[in-house]
Design a protein that fits this description.
There is one protein chain. With 163 residues, the chain is an alpha+beta fold. The protein contains eight helices and four strands, in the order αββααααββααα. The protein has two domains: 71 residues, Winged helix-like DNA-binding domain superfamily/Winged helix DNA-binding domain (Arc Repressor Mutant, subunit A, Orthogonal Bundle), CATH 1.10.10.10; 54 residues. It has a two-stranded antiparallel sheet. The longest helix is centred in the last third of the chain and has 19 residues. The chain is elongated and about 55 Å long. The N and C termini lie far apart (75 Å).
């Protein structure tokens, strides 16, 4: 019986890189970066739940479900699972109050916005925030008022940087 037939040798393999005729071992490709990214960013459903928790400050599964769109029609157990996943990913913490868990965000909304925009800028806009801003300004039909607000923000930032 070969190793393949008995199930041995089917684990992760270490890719080998050749450089100018030399054989170099490469670190195990175990998806560590992917796992880290999954912990740092929210899925669409998780973001939906976090948005409600940010509004509430803290809340139970039923509190969060009460803020979701009625057509969402999510089972209590599914909602509870999503909040437990958010806790495992360290986006929320919980405390037991009687028989119920009360969930509270560990990460502020603005901190998550900053983290997400930075990652978006790095990955999609070649780590050039001006390209991100240019895309927003070019693609959105911004009013004169909105453009003035942006100008005021930039001027305030420039003034603070020179102080």
């Amino acid at each position: 019986m070969t190793n393949r037939e008995n199930g041995k040798g089917l684990g992760k393999s270490t890719p080998i890189v050749f450089s100018r005729g030399k054989r170099l071992e490469r670190p195990e490709a175990d998806g560590t970066d992917m796992k880290k990214e999954k912990r740092e960013f929210l899925t669409e459903v998780e973001l939906e739940f976090m948005t409600q928790l940010w509004k509430l400050g803290e809340g139970t599964v039923r509190d969060v479900m009460g803020l979701l769109a009625p057509e969402r029609n999510l089972a209590y157990t599914s909602a509870a699972t999503i909040l437990r996943i958010l806790e495992q990913k360290e986006f929320v913490t919980s405390r037991k109050k009687g028989k119920t868990f009360v969930y509270k965000p560990l990460l502020e909304k603005d901190a998550y916005q900053s983290r997400t925009l930075k990652a978006l800028s790095e990955k999609l806009f070649d780590n050039t925030p001006t390209m991100l801003i240019a895309r927003l300004v070019d693609d959105y039909d911004l009013t004169e008022e909105a453009l003035e607000e942006i100008r005021a923000l930039v001027e305030r930032r420039l003034k603070n940087d020179t102080d």
